[in-house]
Write a structure and sequence with these properties.
This protein is of the alpha/beta class. The chain has a domain of 286 residues: Amidase signature (AS) domain (Amidase signature (AS) enzymes, Alpha-Beta Complex), CATH 3.90.1300.10. The protein has an 11-stranded mixed sheet with strand order 1-3-2-4-6-5-10-11-9-7-8, sandwiched between helices. β7, α9 and β8 form a beta-alpha-beta unit.
Length: 517
């Protein structure tokens, strides 16, 4: 990276924690930081398409309020004044929320999601809403009705999905931090292929109120950042119990921010790391796992061992059925959730010619408003829930889900955390898998088990694959409500890898054409 890209005045290259420190030291203002990121968006967004809506006026107004509070000594959070991007599946008062779908084009919600309210209460200026696969259905952000997002490492490749917009915005330095959602890996898999850090918290640990649901029992809001510490800082701001969310858990969050620096500087001796046999040891390039991804995973594992961690082989035999179970449970819940988009109350309405019935209007509106992948999953889910097939498909999938949860319980009796590669491959080329849905679904092979069981997981960069020089990801999974273990182990590995590389992985990313170097 050139000297100009790392100069002290280039605020967009700083992490959230570094920006917070600069604000505290009086070296800059929130307005200056926010404007710097808005300028960066203007410079590169034409190539990336990470955002569906940029709220420059609103973000600058929020930044000015933060600066005024700081002058009065009234800070609301450690990240007060640090700008953030928000995935377009979270409702935002006064800003469009489309879920990447034409059926919600132009819809402006009358309320904020709880996590958005917490961001505002904590003083974080919201830069805008990020692109995503329609209703979070996809692994590449190619299923957005508003066009695909491009990976900053290679503009001809996907940034992951469904939250590719948030990951790309952070990787392209358009935002220092972002919020995403993870139903089957939609934060972690984009993190892996863009060289960013993505966290799926314990299910219920962050409020789902105001998250437009795809699959209620699987969806979870989480941080998208460039460092483990930034994820911990953001996680603590948006986490905690919410009485408006019936799935929200009562136990308070563990000390996440405290865990990250402890992990980065502490001794890893005695930490038991379980390598999931079914997601690494038995994998091979011949079975669809990229050799470079496996090599970076093993190198990362070796670094943890050198730091004192104990590695244990752990078999989770029912993980091999996770993909099949997920693609019955998730479409079933999605089919039920998306039934409310009926053109009667809000959203797109298409009225056929003649004297159409209400059913005709619904059919025409849903046909025009939903994309192919959404229709595919609605059909699959409706079939799985239909009379005569419920027990054979949805019921059996739920039984497999129980077995996967038991695999996790048994594994965590032996080890403190479980690890695997985050995704089988690096970022594939745009259009490469659009005509093969099953091949697309296989990208979530390693991330889905955590969603089925509700346990937390983190993905952090493990290096660049030899074949293509693109980022690979290392996944850490912990028991439910033990999210602090993610940050301890993740921060430890992050520190070891940065020492090995001589800096952060994004320092090795190519500069975008048209960007201000």
């Amino acid at each position: 990276m050139s000297e100009s890209r790392t100069s002290m005045s280039d605020w967009t290259r700083k992490t959230g924690a570094e920006l917070a420190d600069a604000l505290a030291a009086g070296e800059t203002t929130s307005v200056e930081l926010t404007q710097a990121h808005l300028d960066r968006i203007a410079a590169v967004e034409g190539a990336i398409h990470a955002f569906l809506h940029v709220d420059a006026a609103g973000a600058l107004a929020q930044a000015a309020e933060s600066d005024a509070r700081r002058s009065d000594g009234d800070l609301r959070s450690p990240l007060d004044g640090v700008p953030i991007a928000v995935k377009d599946i979270l409702t935002t008062t006064g800003l469009p929320t489309t879920c990447g779908s034409k059926i919600l084009e132009g819809w402006i919600p009358p309320y904020d999601a709880t996590v958005v309210t917490k961001l505002k209460d904590a003083g974080l200026p919201i830069l805008g809403k990020t692109n995503m696969d329609e209703f979070a259905m996809g692994s590449s952000t190619e299923h957005s009705a508003y066009g695909p997002t491009h990976n900053p490492w290679d503009l001809d490749r996907i940034p992951g999905g469904s939250g590719g917009g948030s990951a790309a915005a952070v990787a392209a330095f358009e935002a220092p931090i972002a919020l995403g959602t993870d139903t089957g890996g939609s934060i972690r898999q984009p993190g892996a292929v863009t060289g960013t850090v993505g966290v799926k918290p314990t299910y219920g640990g962050i409020s789902r109120y105001g998250l437009v649901a795809m699959a209620n029992s699987l969806d979870q809001v989480g941080p998208v950042t460039r460092t483990v510490l930034d994820s911990a800082l953001l996680h603590e701001i948006v986490g905690g119990h919410d009485p408006r969310d019936s799935t929200s858990v009562d136990p308070p969050l563990p000390a996440l921010v405290e865990a990250a620096p402890q992990g980065a500087t502490g001794d890893r001796s005695g930490v038991r790391v379980g390598v999931i046999t079914e997601l690494g040891r038995e994998a091979s390039a011949g079975s669809g796992w990229q050799a470079g991804v496996l090599a970076r995973f093993q190198e990362s594992l070796d670094l943890l061992v050198e730091a004192g961690a104990e590695v244990v082989e752990v078999s989770c035999p029912n993980f091999v059925h996770a993909l099949a179970a997920y693609y019955l449970i998730m479409p079933s819940e999605a089919s039920s959730n998306l039934a409310k988009f009926d053109a009667m109350r809000y959203g797109l309405r298409v009225v056929p010619e003649g004297d159409p019935s209400a059913e005709d209007v619904m059919r025409a509106s849903r046909d025009a408003g939903f994309g192919d992948e959404v229709k595919r999953r609605i059909i699959l889910g409706t079939y799985a829930l239909s009379s005569g097939y419920y027990d054979a498909y949805y019921g059996q999938a739920q039984k497999v889900r129980t077995l996967i949860g038991r695999d996790f319980d048994a594994a965590f009796e032996q080890v403190d955390v479980l690890v695997s590669p985050t995704a089988p491959t690096t970022a594939f080329k745009l259009g490469e898998k659009l005509d093969d849905p099953v091949a697309m679904y296989l990208n979530d092979l390693a991330t889905i088990p955590a969603n089925l069981a509700g346990v937390p997981g983190i993905s952090l960069p493990s290096g660049l694959a030899d074949e293509d020089g693109l980022p690979a990801g290392f996944q850490v999974l912990a028991p439910a409500l033990a999210d602090d273990r993610l940050y301890r182990v993740g921060a430890a590995l992050e520190a070891l890898l940065e020492k090995k590389w001589g800096g952060a992985i994004l320092d090795r990313a190519p500069e975008l054409k048209g960007a201000d170097a």
